[in-house]
Fold each of these.
Amino acid sequence: MDQTVQQQLTDCILACNHCFDACLKEEHVGHMANCIRLDRDCADICSLLLQAIARNSSNVAVLAKACQEICEACAAECSKHDHDHCQACAKACTECAEACRQLI
Amino acid sequence: MDQTVQQQLTDCILACNHCFDACLKEEHVGHMANCIRLDRDCADICSLLLQAIARNSSNVAVLAKACQEICEACAAECSKHDHDHCQACAKACTECAEACRQLI
Amino acid sequence: MDQTVQQQLTDCILACNHCFDACLKEEHVGHMANCIRLDRDCADICSLLLQAIARNSSNVAVLAKACQEICEACAAECSKHDHDHCQACAKACTECAEACRQLI
Amino acid sequence: MDQTVQQQLTDCILACNHCFDACLKEEHVGHMANCIRLDRDCADICSLLLQAIARNSSNVAVLAKACQEICEACAAECSKHDHDHCQACAKACTECAEACRQLI
C-alpha cells in the first residue's frame, strides 16, 4: 500500500507545482490567487508526509490528517477552474486525499 | 499574538535542531533514537507552520493542529532525558504546542 | 555571529512570505509573477539553511552559497517594485545574502 | 530528461529516509551518526529541487549545484558502511548527483 501512497503523494507534489507555474502564466492571474496559494500549501505538506512515511515516522497519521484536509481544499479550488492544469491538479489532489485517509 | 507564535515556532525549530545535533554526539546514541526522530519531525512541521502564518495561509489551523500534536510528542520524549539539550527542547516544544493551540 | 545569521534568515523567511501574500492581493498580480516565484524559492532555501546551521550540518557552506544566490535574485526582482512589501523584502534579502556570504 | 531527473530525485528522497530510519535501528547507532545527518540533509535538498523543477523555477541550476554536492557527500559516507540500506542509499545518491550535474 505504501508504494501506492508514495506514488500518489509524488504525483500530487508534481501536479501542484505544475499548476502553480501554469497559474502564474495565465492571462488573469488575479483569478488564480487562491489556487496559487493552495498549490504551495499542498505540495509542501505532501513533501513532508512522503518523507515521514519513508522513515517510518510515528507522526504519519497526524501528518496524513493535515495532508488530507489540505489536498481536499486544493482540489475544491482547482476544480472551479477549466484550465487543464487545474483539472489535472484537482484529480491528483482528490486521489491523494483518499490515499491519506487510509493512513489515519 | 502572531509575533509571539512566530518567536515560539522559531525557538522550537532551533531547539529541535540543536537537540538533534547534540543527541548524535551523546555516548549512548541508541537511547536517543526516538528523540532524534521526533526532533526532525517537529522542526519540519514548525517550519511549515511558521511560513504558513507569515503568508496568511487558509490552512493555518490545520497545520497548527498537526504541529501541536507533534510538539507534544517531542516534548514527552525529550522530557524523559536529563541532558540539558533535551530539557531545553522539551520546554520549547511545550510552549510551542500551547501557542499552536491558540491558532486552532 | 550565528545568532545574527539566524535572525537575518528568519527575517528573510517572514519578509518573503509576507511579500508572497501581499503580491497575490495586488491589483495587477500578473506583474508580480516573478516576485511571487522568487519569494517562494527564497523562503524555502532560507528555511533549509536556518535548520542546517542550528544542527551544525557539514553542508552549511554549500547551502549558504545557494541561499546567497537566491536571496540576491529575489532582492533584484523585489527592488523593481515600489510596493512597501517588495521594498521590505528586497532589504531583508540583501542583508540575508550578505550574512550567507560569511558562511561560505 | 526531466522525468528521469524527477524519478532519481524521488528515489534518492526515499532511499535517504529509509537509510535514516534503518541507521537509527542499528546496534551501533553511534557509528552511523554522520550517515543519519547526511541522509537528512540530502533528502531535504532533493525535495526542494524536485519541487523547483516541477514549477520551472529560475533557480533550478543553483539548487542542482547544491544538491549534487550534498548527494556526493552522502554517497561518500554511506558507501563506507556494509549495511544494505547504506549501499542502496549510496547508489541512489550517486545516480542523483549525476542527474543534478546535467541541470547545472
Amino acid sequence: MSDLPEFEVSARLAVYAVEGIPEIGAGDSLGELIGDALQASGLAARDGDILVVTSKIVSKAEGRSLRADDREAAITAETVRVVASRAHPGGVTRIVENRQGIVQAAAGVDASNTAAGTVLLLPIDPDASARSLAEDLRARFGVRLGILISDTLGRAWREGQTDAAIGSAGVLVVDDLRGGVDTFGQRLEVTQIAVADEIAAAGDLVKGKASGVPVALVRGLGRFVVESLDTPARALNRTGPTDMFRLGTDEALAEGRARGYAEGYAAGLAAAARAAADS
Amino acid sequence: MSDLPEFEVSARLAVYAVEGIPEIGAGDSLGELIGDALQASGLAARDGDILVVTSKIVSKAEGRSLRADDREAAITAETVRVVASRAHPGGVTRIVENRQGIVQAAAGVDASNTAAGTVLLLPIDPDASARSLAEDLRARFGVRLGILISDTLGRAWREGQTDAAIGSAGVLVVDDLRGGVDTFGQRLEVTQIAVADEIAAAGDLVKGKASGVPVALVRGLGRFVVESLDTPARALNRTGPTDMFRLGTDEALAEGRARGYAEGYAAGLAAAARAAADS
C-alpha cells in the first residue's frame, strides 16, 4: 500500500485499514501482532499516527471469553447499575452502567465475531490495555503514536450505533475549546469536542463490522497525540450528578409514582384524621 | 492540493478540508460557492465523494438568522417538546425535541460563528437543503456525489459533543447489517451502523470548530453513495415509542411522584373513610 503524498496536517486526514492481523487468542501479544501487520502492510508508523483498535481483539488477547450459556448471567455480572430495560420480540434490552463506567446495552457483552458458544466481556481496564499497546508500539517503531480502543455504542434519541473510544493512551480525548473564540471573535459556545469518539467513528468506516479488519490507522491528527500515555477515555463517561438520564423514563416514572403514592397515602390519612378531629 | 494515489476503496478513506468558501449571507447560492471552492482547490469531485457541510452555513444562506436578544424566545419557538432541563452557573440547559425532530440542547439555536447580536436557527428542513445542494453539485460536476449536513450534538452518558448528520441526500444514513454474518458465520448482533453520523464525525476532524472551514470532502466511501437523493437523515431521529429517554430522570421522577401522590392521597382518604365506617 503506497503512502499518501505529503499534505497539510490541519487540512486532511487519511484512514487506512491495517490488514493481515490473524485471529487473536488468549495470551497473544497484541502489540507484536499489530506491529507485524503494520510493518507487512508497508504503512510505516509515523509520529502522530493513531491506531484505532477494536475492543474485541483486546478482549480476546486478554482471555475475556466466557461460555455463551452464561450470557444473561455475564451481563448481570458486568452490570454496576441498571439504567433502563425494555422487552422486545427478541428478548429484553438492558441498558446499564458497566464495570468500566460506560453506559451501554448489554454491558458490552458481545456474542458476534466470537467462537461459537462463547461471549466476550470488555477488557477489564481499556485505558490500561491502550497504555500497554502504546508502550509496545512506540518502543518498536520509535515514533510517538497514539492508541484508541473502540467499541460500538447505541445512543439515546438516535437510531443505529456508532463507534466510540473506550480506551486511550497518548491521544487527547477531548479538544477543549473553552475560552476559544470563533472567526467573529466571539466566545465559542460548543466547547468540548469528544475527538476520541470522532476518531473511533472514522476508524469504524474502514474497519467495518463484517470485514474482520480490527485495526485502523488514522493519519493527520498529530495535534491530538501527546507524549503522556495517561489520557484516559474513561474521562468521557458521564455518570453521577451531571447525568440527566441516569434512569430510563419508564423506570423514573415508576419510581416517582411509588414514592408519591406513599407520601400521598400518608397525607390522605392525615387529612382524614384532621377532618374527623374537627367535626 | 494533489490527489491521493489510487487506492482500494474498502481499505482507506481520505478527508479534505474544502478551503476558500467565503462568509455566507442570506440568499447566497451555496451550491455555486461550494462548487467554486472545490474547483479552485484542485479537488476534482469524483463519483462516490461525500461533502459534509456544516449546518451553520446552510442556515446563513437560507436567512435563518435572528436578533440575539431573542435567543431564549427563539429556543422556545423551536421547541416541540422539552425533554430535560438543568440549571447551572451559566444559565439553564434545555434539552428539547426541535421542529426538525432532533433531540438536542437549545433546539440547535446557535450563537457562535454568527455576526454579533444574532443567533442562527437550524435549516427548516435539512434533508431538503441537502437535496438542493446535491442537485446543484451533481449537475455541475457530472458525478454522483453525496451531501451530508452536519450539526454538533451532545450525548447522554458521554462528555463532550460530536458532529452528527442532520441532513442527507444521496448518502445512505444507515449501514444495515441485519441478516449479515460475521467472519465466524454467526449472525451479527450489532446490526445498524449510523454511518452518516460516523462520516459527519470524520468530517468534523478536519473542519474544526474554530477554523472557519465549513465543508469537508470525504473520499473512499462510495459504497454508501446512491443515485437517489431521497435518503433522509431524519430517519436517524429516534423519538416516540422506542425512545426510552423521552423525559429526563428528574422530570420523570417529578411527574411520577405527582401522579402517585394524587393516587395515594385518594387511596388514603378512602381507607380512612372505610375505617371510620367499620368502627
